Amino acid sequence: MAWTTAHQLTSATEPLPPPALTLTALGRPPVDLATTDGRPAVINLWATWCAPCRREMPALAQAERAHPEVRFLLINQGEGEADVRDFLQREGLSFDQVLLDPAMATQRHYRTVGVPVTLFLHADGRLAKAHTGEIAPERIAAEIARLKSFSAPAPQPRV
């Protein structure tokens, strides 16, 4: 199911940790989603056949380039490696971490339905927000700023 007009941004109501799930990565070693690297993260759940997913991909690629302090994981839902590689090459898209989730276990863990879904995670891996449907570049930027404000070290008191 693709979300074409329904857009929803919800705050996490519980401190949902990352899933204990290791996924195949294109051109890289497998990625353990439960392992964080100390950076906030943006996870996008997508599929090549999904028109809203295809439309938002350039904005996600631009955000990844603009925010190296944020980890971006693009997790394809239910498709094979050849289809994903062909799509990325055909569209001229490049991301640091494209993962394959043929069983769609990530969707089940985060209790999402359909694609696209964009998840914003705190630096410790807990879910902060979930956006269902195509996401605008301005929303990506606003949520990244919010994540970074939570991840910033507390100011030191002056003595």
Automatic annotation (TrEMBL):
The UniProt entry lists the main location of this chain as other
The reply on keyword Transcription is no
CDD domains according to UniProt: TlpA_like_family
**InterPro entries, alphabetically?**
Redoxin (IPR013740), Thioredoxin-like_sf (IPR036249), Thioredoxin_CS (IPR017937), Thioredoxin_domain (IPR013766), Thioredoxin_ResA/DsbE_sf (IPR050553)
GO CC annotations? cell envelope
Where does this protein reside within or beyond the cell?
A: Cell envelope
Sorted keywords for this record are: Cytochrome c-type biogenesis, Redox-active center
Q: Which domain of life is it from?
A: Bacteria
Q: Which Gene Ontology BP annotations are present?
A: cytochrome complex assembly
Residue span, Thioredoxin domain: 10-149
The reply on keyword Cytoplasm is no
Q: Where is this region: Disordered?
A: 1-20
Example of a GO MF term: disulfide oxidoreductase activity
Q: One Pfam family, short name please?
A: Redoxin
Q: Which PANTHER family match?
A: CHROMOSOME UNDETERMINED SCAFFOLD_47, WHOLE GENOME SHOTGUN SEQUENCE, THIOL:DISULFIDE INTERCHANGE PROTEIN DSBE
Protein name (database record): Thiol-disulfide oxidoreductase ResA
Write down the species: Brevundimonas mediterranea
Query: Which lineage do the record's taxonomy fields give for this organism?
Result: Bacteria, Pseudomonadati, Pseudomonadota, Alphaproteobacteria, Caulobacterales
